[in-house]
Protein backbone atom coordinates (compact mmCIF):
# COMPACT_ATOMS: atom_id res chain seq x y z
CA UNK A 1 0.00 0.00 0.00
CA UNK A 2 2.86 2.36 0.87
CA UNK A 3 4.45 1.56 -2.48
CA UNK A 4 1.35 2.66 -4.39
CA UNK A 5 1.08 5.90 -2.39
CA UNK A 6 4.72 6.68 -3.14
CA UNK A 7 4.19 6.11 -6.87
CA UNK A 8 1.08 8.31 -6.76
CA UNK A 9 2.97 11.14 -5.04
CA UNK A 10 5.82 10.93 -7.54
CA UNK A 11 3.36 11.04 -10.42
CA UNK A 12 1.61 14.13 -9.01
CA UNK A 13 5.01 15.77 -8.48
CA UNK A 14 6.07 15.11 -12.10
CA UNK A 15 2.82 16.55 -13.43
CA UNK A 16 3.21 19.66 -11.27
CA UNK A 17 6.84 20.19 -12.25
CA UNK A 18 6.05 19.63 -15.92
CA UNK A 19 3.13 22.08 -15.80
CA UNK A 20 5.31 24.64 -14.02
CA UNK A 21 8.07 24.16 -16.61
CA UNK A 22 5.58 24.61 -19.46
CA UNK A 23 4.18 27.70 -17.75
CA UNK A 24 7.70 29.06 -17.23
CA UNK A 25 8.65 28.42 -20.87
CA UNK A 26 5.46 30.09 -22.13
CA UNK A 27 6.05 33.02 -19.78
CA UNK A 28 9.67 33.35 -20.91
CA UNK A 29 8.62 33.23 -24.56
CA UNK A 30 5.92 35.86 -24.05
CA UNK A 31 8.34 38.09 -22.16
CA UNK A 32 10.97 37.71 -24.88
CA UNK A 33 8.43 38.58 -27.59
CA UNK A 34 7.33 41.62 -25.57
CA UNK A 35 10.99 42.61 -25.15
CA UNK A 36 11.49 42.19 -28.90
CA UNK A 37 8.72 44.70 -29.65
CA UNK A 38 10.02 47.24 -27.15
CA UNK A 39 13.67 46.98 -28.21
CA UNK A 40 12.90 47.10 -31.92
CA UNK A 41 10.84 50.25 -31.49
CA UNK A 42 13.59 51.80 -29.36
CA UNK A 43 16.41 50.79 -31.72
CA UNK A 44 14.76 52.02 -34.92
CA UNK A 45 13.12 55.19 -33.60
CA UNK A 46 16.21 56.88 -32.13
CA UNK A 47 17.12 60.11 -33.88
CA UNK A 48 20.32 60.91 -32.03
CA UNK A 49 23.71 59.44 -32.95
CA UNK A 50 23.91 55.85 -31.77
CA UNK A 51 27.71 55.74 -31.56
CA UNK A 52 30.65 58.06 -31.83
CA UNK A 53 31.24 59.05 -35.44
CA UNK A 54 34.57 58.19 -37.00
CA UNK A 55 36.66 60.75 -38.86
CA UNK A 56 36.57 59.95 -42.60
CA UNK A 57 39.93 61.69 -42.94
CA UNK A 58 41.55 59.98 -39.99
CA UNK A 59 44.60 57.72 -39.99
CA UNK A 60 44.00 54.27 -38.57
CA UNK A 61 46.59 52.06 -36.94
CA UNK A 62 47.15 48.32 -37.21
CA UNK A 63 50.48 48.58 -35.44
CA UNK A 64 51.96 51.24 -33.17
CA UNK A 65 53.79 53.89 -35.19
CA UNK A 66 55.77 56.77 -33.68
CA UNK A 67 56.26 59.49 -36.30
CA UNK A 68 59.02 61.06 -34.21
CA UNK A 69 61.22 58.10 -35.15
CA UNK A 70 60.55 58.46 -38.86
CA UNK A 71 63.34 60.34 -40.62
CA UNK A 72 62.63 59.22 -44.19
CA UNK A 73 59.33 59.33 -46.05
CA UNK A 74 58.85 57.39 -49.28
CA UNK A 75 55.90 57.46 -51.67
CA UNK A 76 54.37 55.71 -54.63
CA UNK A 77 52.90 57.96 -57.32
CA UNK A 78 49.65 56.53 -58.72
CA UNK A 79 46.75 56.63 -56.25
CA UNK A 80 49.14 57.76 -53.50
CA UNK A 81 50.55 61.21 -54.25
CA UNK A 82 48.38 61.42 -57.37
CA UNK A 83 44.64 60.74 -57.17
CA UNK A 84 42.53 60.12 -60.26
CA UNK A 85 38.99 61.04 -61.20
CA UNK A 86 36.43 58.37 -62.04
CA UNK A 87 36.91 59.30 -65.70
CA UNK A 88 40.06 57.13 -65.66
CA UNK A 89 37.99 54.01 -64.99
CA UNK A 90 35.80 54.77 -67.99
CA UNK A 91 38.91 55.31 -70.11
CA UNK A 92 40.43 51.95 -69.14
CA UNK A 93 37.13 50.15 -69.67
CA UNK A 94 36.53 51.67 -73.10
CA UNK A 95 40.00 50.92 -74.46
CA UNK A 96 40.01 47.40 -73.06
CA UNK A 97 36.66 46.54 -74.70
CA UNK A 98 37.95 48.02 -77.97
CA UNK A 99 41.03 45.77 -77.72
CA UNK A 100 38.78 42.74 -77.23
CA UNK A 101 36.75 43.59 -80.34
CA UNK A 102 39.53 44.72 -82.68
CA UNK A 103 42.42 42.51 -81.60
CA UNK A 104 40.75 39.40 -80.18
CA UNK A 105 37.66 39.41 -82.45
CA UNK A 106 35.04 39.60 -79.70
CA UNK A 107 31.47 40.49 -80.80
CA UNK A 108 30.97 44.05 -82.01
CA UNK A 109 28.07 44.45 -79.57
CA UNK A 110 30.63 44.97 -76.81
CA UNK A 111 31.33 48.43 -78.20
CA UNK A 112 27.91 49.49 -76.89
CA UNK A 113 28.91 48.70 -73.29
CA UNK A 114 29.98 51.42 -70.88
CA UNK A 115 31.60 51.48 -67.45
CA UNK A 116 29.20 51.50 -64.49
CA UNK A 117 30.40 52.27 -60.95
CA UNK A 118 29.64 49.71 -58.27
CA UNK A 119 30.04 46.57 -60.40
CA UNK A 120 33.38 45.73 -58.79
CA UNK A 121 35.26 46.17 -55.55
CA UNK A 122 38.86 46.00 -54.42
CA UNK A 123 39.90 42.73 -52.76
CA UNK A 124 37.56 40.33 -54.59
CA UNK A 125 38.72 36.86 -55.60
CA UNK A 126 38.01 35.13 -58.90
CA UNK A 127 37.58 31.39 -59.28
CA UNK A 128 39.14 31.45 -62.74
CA UNK A 129 37.78 28.21 -64.23
CA UNK A 130 34.23 28.79 -63.03
CA UNK A 131 34.30 32.55 -63.62
CA UNK A 132 32.95 33.20 -60.13
CA UNK A 133 33.69 36.51 -58.46
CA UNK A 134 33.49 36.26 -54.69
CA UNK A 135 34.38 37.89 -51.40
CA UNK A 136 36.37 35.91 -48.85
CA UNK A 137 36.61 36.58 -45.15
CA UNK A 138 39.78 36.56 -43.09
CA UNK A 139 39.37 32.82 -42.40
CA UNK A 140 39.21 31.93 -46.13
CA UNK A 141 35.45 31.41 -46.00
CA UNK A 142 33.46 32.26 -49.13
CA UNK A 143 30.80 34.79 -48.22
CA UNK A 144 27.55 33.31 -49.47
CA UNK A 145 25.43 35.91 -51.22
CA UNK A 146 28.49 37.62 -52.74
CA UNK A 147 29.31 35.05 -55.45
CA UNK A 148 28.53 36.05 -59.05
CA UNK A 149 29.13 34.74 -62.56
CA UNK A 150 28.64 37.78 -64.71
CA UNK A 151 25.58 39.44 -63.19
CA UNK A 152 24.05 36.16 -62.06
CA UNK A 153 24.17 35.31 -58.35
CA UNK A 154 25.40 31.80 -57.57
CA UNK A 155 23.22 30.00 -55.03
CA UNK A 156 24.61 28.93 -51.68
CA UNK A 157 23.90 25.30 -52.55
CA UNK A 158 25.93 25.48 -55.77
CA UNK A 159 28.86 27.20 -54.05
CA UNK A 160 28.94 24.64 -51.25
CA UNK A 161 28.71 21.73 -53.69
CA UNK A 162 31.53 23.11 -55.85
CA UNK A 163 33.96 23.71 -52.98
CA UNK A 164 32.76 21.03 -50.53
CA UNK A 165 31.72 23.79 -48.16
CA UNK A 166 32.66 27.44 -47.91
CA UNK A 167 36.18 27.24 -46.48
CA UNK A 168 39.10 27.37 -48.94
CA UNK A 169 42.59 26.09 -48.22
CA UNK A 170 45.69 28.27 -48.37
CA UNK A 171 46.77 26.29 -51.46
CA UNK A 172 43.63 27.44 -53.27
CA UNK A 173 43.66 31.05 -52.05
CA UNK A 174 47.40 31.65 -52.13
CA UNK A 175 49.42 33.97 -49.91
CA UNK A 176 49.96 36.99 -52.14
CA UNK A 177 46.76 37.00 -54.15
CA UNK A 178 47.38 34.51 -56.95
CA UNK A 179 47.34 30.75 -57.57
CA UNK A 180 46.71 28.63 -60.65
CA UNK A 181 42.93 28.95 -60.26
CA UNK A 182 42.41 31.89 -57.93
CA UNK A 183 43.18 35.55 -58.53
CA UNK A 184 42.67 38.49 -56.18
CA UNK A 185 41.94 41.97 -57.54
CA UNK A 186 43.92 44.16 -55.15
CA UNK A 187 44.40 47.65 -56.54
CA UNK A 188 41.86 50.25 -57.59
CA UNK A 189 42.98 49.99 -61.24
CA UNK A 190 41.25 46.58 -61.23
CA UNK A 191 37.73 48.04 -60.86
CA UNK A 192 37.19 48.59 -64.62
CA UNK A 193 38.71 45.16 -65.29
CA UNK A 194 36.20 43.47 -62.97
CA UNK A 195 33.35 45.41 -64.56
CA UNK A 196 34.35 44.44 -68.09
CA UNK A 197 34.83 40.81 -67.04
CA UNK A 198 31.29 40.69 -65.63
CA UNK A 199 29.80 42.41 -68.68
CA UNK A 200 31.47 40.10 -71.22
CA UNK A 201 30.57 37.00 -69.22
CA UNK A 202 26.94 38.10 -68.99
CA UNK A 203 26.82 38.86 -72.71
CA UNK A 204 27.95 35.32 -73.56
CA UNK A 205 25.41 33.84 -71.12
CA UNK A 206 22.50 35.93 -72.43
CA UNK A 207 23.32 35.11 -76.06
CA UNK A 208 23.94 31.38 -75.48
CA UNK A 209 27.53 31.64 -76.72
CA UNK A 210 29.66 28.70 -75.49
CA UNK A 211 32.79 29.94 -73.70
CA UNK A 212 35.42 28.97 -71.18
CA UNK A 213 35.45 31.33 -68.22
CA UNK A 214 39.22 31.17 -67.93
CA UNK A 215 39.58 32.31 -71.56
CA UNK A 216 37.46 35.38 -70.91
CA UNK A 217 39.50 36.21 -67.81
CA UNK A 218 42.83 35.89 -69.65
CA UNK A 219 41.56 37.94 -72.59
CA UNK A 220 40.16 40.75 -70.43
CA UNK A 221 43.39 40.80 -68.43
CA UNK A 222 45.39 40.98 -71.66
CA UNK A 223 43.24 43.84 -72.92
CA UNK A 224 43.62 45.89 -69.73
CA UNK A 225 47.34 45.12 -69.44
CA UNK A 226 47.95 46.12 -73.06
CA UNK A 227 46.43 49.53 -72.41
CA UNK A 228 48.87 50.00 -69.53
CA UNK A 229 52.13 48.56 -70.85
CA UNK A 230 51.73 49.95 -74.36
CA UNK A 231 51.96 53.42 -72.87
CA UNK A 232 48.65 54.39 -74.45
CA UNK A 233 46.99 55.14 -71.10
CA UNK A 234 49.84 57.41 -70.03
CA UNK A 235 49.83 59.15 -73.41
CA UNK A 236 46.12 59.98 -73.16
CA UNK A 237 46.14 60.96 -69.48
CA UNK A 238 49.43 62.85 -69.75
CA UNK A 239 48.05 65.04 -72.52
CA UNK A 240 44.91 65.94 -70.54
CA UNK A 241 45.84 65.94 -66.86
CA UNK A 242 42.92 68.17 -65.84
CA UNK A 243 40.43 65.60 -67.07
CA UNK A 244 41.96 62.68 -65.18
CA UNK A 245 43.95 63.98 -62.19
CA UNK A 246 42.22 65.25 -59.07
CA UNK A 247 43.52 68.55 -57.79
CA UNK A 248 45.03 68.30 -54.33
CA UNK A 249 45.65 71.67 -52.73
CA UNK A 250 47.06 70.09 -49.58
CA UNK A 251 49.81 68.05 -51.23
CA UNK A 252 52.31 70.90 -51.50
CA UNK A 253 51.75 71.88 -47.85
CA UNK A 254 52.24 68.27 -46.76
CA UNK A 255 55.55 67.83 -48.60
CA UNK A 256 56.72 71.30 -47.56
CA UNK A 257 56.15 70.44 -43.91
CA UNK A 258 58.26 67.30 -44.24
CA UNK A 259 60.95 69.28 -46.06
CA UNK A 260 60.98 72.03 -43.42
CA UNK A 261 61.37 69.39 -40.70
CA UNK A 262 64.52 68.08 -42.45
CA UNK A 263 62.90 64.78 -43.35
CA UNK A 264 64.30 62.98 -46.35
CA UNK A 265 61.73 62.33 -49.07
CA UNK A 266 61.86 59.88 -51.96
CA UNK A 267 59.62 58.63 -54.74
CA UNK A 268 59.51 55.08 -56.18
CA UNK A 269 57.05 54.55 -59.02
CA UNK A 270 56.62 52.21 -61.96
CA UNK A 271 55.51 55.10 -64.15
CA UNK A 272 57.83 56.77 -66.67
CA UNK A 273 59.43 60.07 -65.71
CA UNK A 274 57.77 62.15 -68.41
CA UNK A 275 54.35 61.03 -67.17
CA UNK A 276 55.20 61.63 -63.51
CA UNK A 277 56.52 65.05 -64.49
CA UNK A 278 53.21 65.96 -66.18
CA UNK A 279 51.22 64.89 -63.14
CA UNK A 280 53.51 66.42 -60.52
CA UNK A 281 53.78 69.69 -62.41
CA UNK A 282 49.99 69.89 -62.41
CA UNK A 283 49.82 69.07 -58.68
CA UNK A 284 52.89 70.88 -57.32
CA UNK A 285 54.26 73.23 -59.98
CA UNK A 286 57.37 73.28 -62.16
CA UNK A 287 59.81 72.90 -59.27
CA UNK A 288 58.24 69.74 -57.82
CA UNK A 289 61.55 67.83 -57.92
CA UNK A 290 62.95 70.14 -55.22
CA UNK A 291 60.82 68.32 -52.65
CA UNK A 292 62.48 64.94 -53.26
CA UNK A 293 65.92 63.72 -52.27
CA UNK A 294 65.64 60.63 -54.48
CA UNK A 295 63.37 60.08 -57.50
CA UNK A 296 63.12 56.60 -59.02
CA UNK A 297 60.86 55.91 -62.01
CA UNK A 298 60.14 52.73 -64.01
CA UNK A 299 61.07 50.79 -60.88
CA UNK A 300 59.26 47.56 -61.92
CA UNK A 301 57.74 46.99 -58.48
CA UNK A 302 57.40 44.49 -56.90
CA UNK A 303 60.59 43.14 -58.56
CA UNK A 304 62.38 46.27 -57.33
CA UNK A 305 61.85 45.06 -53.74
CA UNK A 306 62.71 41.42 -54.52
CA UNK A 307 65.83 39.46 -55.32
CA UNK A 308 66.40 40.96 -58.77
CA UNK A 309 69.55 43.10 -58.75
CA UNK A 310 69.07 45.38 -61.74
CA UNK A 311 71.32 48.46 -61.47
CA UNK A 312 70.17 52.07 -61.31
CA UNK A 313 70.50 54.22 -64.40
CA UNK A 314 70.32 58.00 -64.51
CA UNK A 315 68.14 59.60 -67.17
CA UNK A 316 68.49 62.89 -68.98
CA UNK A 317 65.17 64.57 -68.20
CA UNK A 318 65.47 66.91 -71.17
CA UNK A 319 65.50 64.21 -73.85
CA UNK A 320 64.28 61.27 -71.70
CA UNK A 321 67.36 59.15 -72.49
CA UNK A 322 69.27 56.78 -70.21
CA UNK A 323 72.88 57.43 -69.28
CA UNK A 324 75.60 54.75 -69.74
CA UNK A 325 77.57 55.97 -66.73
CA UNK A 326 77.47 53.66 -63.73
CA UNK A 327 75.45 55.06 -60.79
CA UNK A 328 77.41 54.84 -57.53
CA UNK A 329 75.35 57.30 -55.52
CA UNK A 330 71.87 58.79 -55.65
CA UNK A 331 71.89 62.57 -55.85
CA UNK A 332 69.30 65.20 -55.10
CA UNK A 333 67.83 66.77 -58.24
CA UNK A 334 68.58 63.81 -60.48
CA UNK A 335 66.16 61.18 -61.75
CA UNK A 336 66.87 57.45 -61.88
CA UNK A 337 65.16 54.46 -63.44
CA UNK A 338 65.12 50.74 -62.69
CA UNK A 339 67.47 49.80 -59.82
CA UNK A 340 66.75 47.65 -56.77
CA UNK A 341 66.11 48.08 -53.07
CA UNK A 342 69.39 46.53 -51.91
CA UNK A 343 71.42 49.16 -53.79
CA UNK A 344 69.08 51.91 -52.57
CA UNK A 345 69.70 50.92 -48.95
CA UNK A 346 73.45 50.62 -49.50
CA UNK A 347 73.70 54.06 -51.11
CA UNK A 348 71.43 55.91 -48.67
CA UNK A 349 72.02 53.97 -45.42
CA UNK A 350 68.32 54.25 -44.65
CA UNK A 351 67.44 51.89 -41.82
CA UNK A 352 64.13 50.08 -41.66
CA UNK A 353 62.59 51.64 -38.57
CA UNK A 354 63.55 55.12 -39.75
CA UNK A 355 61.66 54.78 -43.02
CA UNK A 356 57.92 55.06 -43.70
CA UNK A 357 56.90 54.02 -47.20
CA UNK A 358 53.37 54.83 -48.34
CA UNK A 359 51.58 53.21 -51.28
CA UNK A 360 48.23 51.91 -52.45
CA UNK A 361 49.05 48.28 -53.34
CA UNK A 362 49.35 46.05 -50.28
CA UNK A 363 51.36 43.40 -52.18
CA UNK A 364 53.26 45.38 -54.79
CA UNK A 365 54.14 48.31 -52.52
CA UNK A 366 54.14 47.11 -48.93
CA UNK A 367 54.48 43.35 -48.39
CA UNK A 368 58.23 42.90 -49.07
CA UNK A 369 59.18 46.12 -47.30
CA UNK A 370 57.29 45.08 -44.19
CA UNK A 371 58.25 41.40 -44.10
CA UNK A 372 61.86 41.43 -45.32
CA UNK A 373 63.28 44.86 -44.59
CA UNK A 374 61.47 46.10 -41.49
CA UNK A 375 60.35 49.37 -43.07
CA UNK A 376 57.27 50.99 -41.62
CA UNK A 377 54.40 51.05 -44.08
CA UNK A 378 51.25 53.04 -44.80
CA UNK A 379 48.42 52.21 -47.19
CA UNK A 380 46.32 54.74 -49.10
CA UNK A 381 42.83 53.40 -49.75
CA UNK A 382 40.20 55.79 -51.07
CA UNK A 383 37.45 53.42 -49.95
CA UNK A 384 38.18 54.21 -46.29
CA UNK A 385 36.60 57.66 -46.55
CA UNK A 386 33.62 56.36 -48.51
CA UNK A 387 32.91 53.55 -46.07
CA UNK A 388 33.29 55.68 -42.95
CA UNK A 389 30.71 58.11 -44.32
CA UNK A 390 28.34 55.17 -44.66
CA UNK A 391 29.21 53.88 -41.18
CA UNK A 392 28.44 57.33 -39.76
CA UNK A 393 25.04 57.47 -41.47
CA UNK A 394 21.88 57.13 -39.40
CA UNK A 395 20.52 54.33 -41.58
CA UNK A 396 23.61 52.17 -41.04
CA UNK A 397 23.85 52.83 -37.33
CA UNK A 398 20.19 51.99 -36.76
CA UNK A 399 20.53 48.79 -38.77
CA UNK A 400 23.59 47.64 -36.82
CA UNK A 401 22.02 48.65 -33.51
CA UNK A 402 18.98 46.51 -34.22
CA UNK A 403 21.13 43.64 -35.56
CA UNK A 404 23.11 43.52 -32.31
CA UNK A 405 19.92 43.60 -30.22
CA UNK A 406 18.31 40.92 -32.40
CA UNK A 407 21.38 38.70 -31.98
CA UNK A 408 21.11 39.14 -28.21
CA UNK A 409 17.43 38.14 -28.33
CA UNK A 410 18.22 35.08 -30.46
CA UNK A 411 20.86 33.98 -27.96
CA UNK A 412 18.27 34.04 -25.19
CA UNK A 413 15.63 32.36 -27.34
CA UNK A 414 17.92 29.40 -28.04
CA UNK A 415 17.65 28.07 -24.46
CA UNK A 416 13.83 27.94 -24.54
CA UNK A 417 12.59 24.56 -25.87
CA UNK A 418 9.32 23.84 -27.59
CA UNK A 419 7.68 24.21 -31.01
CA UNK A 420 6.58 27.81 -30.37
CA UNK A 421 10.16 28.82 -29.62
CA UNK A 422 11.42 26.93 -32.69
CA UNK A 423 8.96 28.74 -34.94
CA UNK A 424 9.91 32.10 -33.48
CA UNK A 425 13.60 31.23 -33.91
CA UNK A 426 13.11 30.69 -37.65
CA UNK A 427 11.37 34.05 -37.94
CA UNK A 428 14.07 35.94 -36.07
CA UNK A 429 16.94 34.21 -37.88
CA UNK A 430 15.33 35.10 -41.21
CA UNK A 431 14.97 38.71 -40.06
CA UNK A 432 18.63 38.71 -39.02
CA UNK A 433 19.64 37.61 -42.53
CA UNK A 434 17.49 40.38 -44.03
CA UNK A 435 19.08 42.99 -41.78
CA UNK A 436 22.57 41.71 -42.64
CA UNK A 437 21.77 42.07 -46.34
CA UNK A 438 20.46 45.57 -45.71
CA UNK A 439 23.70 46.62 -43.98
CA UNK A 440 25.75 45.03 -46.78
CA UNK A 441 23.80 46.78 -49.53
CA UNK A 442 24.54 50.18 -48.03
CA UNK A 443 28.16 49.66 -49.12
CA UNK A 444 27.72 47.70 -52.35
CA UNK A 445 24.63 45.72 -53.37
CA UNK A 446 26.76 42.88 -54.74
CA UNK A 447 29.73 42.59 -52.41
CA UNK A 448 29.19 44.81 -49.39
CA UNK A 449 32.11 46.40 -47.54
CA UNK A 450 35.68 46.13 -48.81
CA UNK A 451 36.94 45.70 -45.27
CA UNK A 452 34.51 43.44 -43.42
CA UNK A 453 31.85 40.80 -43.57
CA UNK A 454 29.08 41.01 -40.99
CA UNK A 455 31.15 39.64 -38.10
CA UNK A 456 34.80 39.36 -39.19
CA UNK A 457 37.21 41.24 -41.48
CA UNK A 458 37.52 40.38 -45.14
CA UNK A 459 40.53 38.57 -46.53
CA UNK A 460 41.64 41.88 -48.03
CA UNK A 461 41.56 43.58 -44.64
CA UNK A 462 43.53 40.71 -43.13
CA UNK A 463 46.30 41.32 -45.68
CA UNK A 464 46.04 45.05 -45.05
CA UNK A 465 46.44 44.53 -41.31
CA UNK A 466 49.43 42.26 -41.95
CA UNK A 467 51.39 44.54 -44.26
CA UNK A 468 50.38 48.11 -43.34
CA UNK A 469 51.21 49.74 -40.02
CA UNK A 470 48.67 52.48 -40.73
CA UNK A 471 46.12 53.23 -43.43
CA UNK A 472 44.05 56.20 -44.53
CA UNK A 473 42.10 57.53 -47.52
CA UNK A 474 44.46 60.34 -48.55
CA UNK A 475 48.18 60.84 -47.97
CA UNK A 476 47.52 64.47 -47.03
CA UNK A 477 45.56 63.34 -43.98
CA UNK A 478 48.95 63.24 -42.26
CA UNK A 479 48.74 67.04 -42.17
CA UNK A 480 46.21 66.73 -39.34
CA UNK A 481 48.79 65.10 -37.07
CA UNK A 482 52.03 66.54 -35.64
CA UNK A 483 55.29 64.97 -36.75
CA UNK A 484 55.85 63.49 -33.29
CA UNK A 485 52.42 61.86 -33.16
CA UNK A 486 52.15 58.24 -32.01
CA UNK A 487 49.48 56.12 -33.72
CA UNK A 488 48.19 53.48 -31.31
CA UNK A 489 46.18 50.49 -32.50
CA UNK A 490 42.80 50.10 -30.87
CA UNK A 491 42.67 47.43 -28.16
CA UNK A 492 40.18 44.86 -29.42
CA UNK A 493 38.72 42.27 -27.07
CA UNK A 494 39.58 38.69 -27.95
CA UNK A 495 36.82 36.10 -28.01
CA UNK A 496 37.62 34.96 -24.46
CA UNK A 497 37.90 38.51 -23.05
CA UNK A 498 35.29 40.93 -21.79
CA UNK A 499 34.63 43.89 -24.03
CA UNK A 500 36.34 46.76 -22.28
CA UNK A 501 34.22 49.93 -22.30
CA UNK A 502 35.56 53.08 -23.90
CA UNK A 503 35.44 55.86 -21.31
CA UNK A 504 33.18 58.85 -21.95
CA UNK A 505 35.67 61.71 -21.73
CA UNK A 506 32.96 64.30 -21.07
CA UNK A 507 31.61 62.33 -18.12
CA UNK A 508 35.11 61.86 -16.75
CA UNK A 509 35.78 65.58 -16.99
CA UNK A 510 32.48 66.40 -15.29
CA UNK A 511 33.21 63.91 -12.52
CA UNK A 512 36.68 65.40 -12.04
CA UNK A 513 35.21 68.90 -11.92
CA UNK A 514 32.66 67.85 -9.29
CA UNK A 515 35.42 66.33 -7.15
CA UNK A 516 37.47 69.52 -7.47
CA UNK A 517 34.48 71.66 -6.46
CA UNK A 518 33.78 69.49 -3.41
CA UNK A 519 37.44 69.67 -2.40
CA UNK A 520 37.49 73.45 -2.83
CA UNK A 521 34.28 73.83 -0.77
CA UNK A 522 35.59 71.60 1.99
CA UNK A 523 38.90 73.50 2.03
CA UNK A 524 37.12 76.87 2.41
CA UNK A 525 34.89 75.55 5.20
CA UNK A 526 37.93 74.14 6.97
CA UNK A 527 39.72 77.54 6.86
CA UNK A 528 36.64 79.22 8.34
UniProtKB/TrEMBL annotation:
InterPro entries membership: HAD-like_sf, HAD-SF_hydro_IG_5-nucl, HAD_sf, Pur_nucleotidase
Cofactors: Mg(2+)
Active site: 76 (nucleophile), 78 (proton donor)
NCBIfam families recorded: HAD-IG-Ncltidse
The name this protein goes by in its record: 5'-nucleotidase domain-containing protein 3
Record Pfam families: 5_nucleotid
Gene3D superfamilies: HAD superfamily/HAD-like
Keyword annotations of the record: Hydrolase, Magnesium, Metal-binding
Amino acid sequence: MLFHRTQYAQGISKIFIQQRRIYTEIYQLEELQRLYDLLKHESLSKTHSLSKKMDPNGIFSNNELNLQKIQVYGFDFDYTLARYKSSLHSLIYDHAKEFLVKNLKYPDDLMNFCFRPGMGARGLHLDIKRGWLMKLDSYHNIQLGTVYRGMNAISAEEVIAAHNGTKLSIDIVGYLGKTTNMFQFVDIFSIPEITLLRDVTQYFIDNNIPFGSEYVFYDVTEAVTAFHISGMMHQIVGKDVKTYFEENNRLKSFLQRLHDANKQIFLITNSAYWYVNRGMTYLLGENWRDFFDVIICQARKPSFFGAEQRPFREIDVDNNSKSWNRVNKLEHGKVYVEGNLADLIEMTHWKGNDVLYIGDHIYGDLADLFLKYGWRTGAILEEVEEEINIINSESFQKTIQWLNVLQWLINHLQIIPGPEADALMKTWVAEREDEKAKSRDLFNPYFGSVFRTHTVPTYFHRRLARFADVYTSNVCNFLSYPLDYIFFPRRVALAHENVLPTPDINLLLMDTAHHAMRFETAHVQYEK
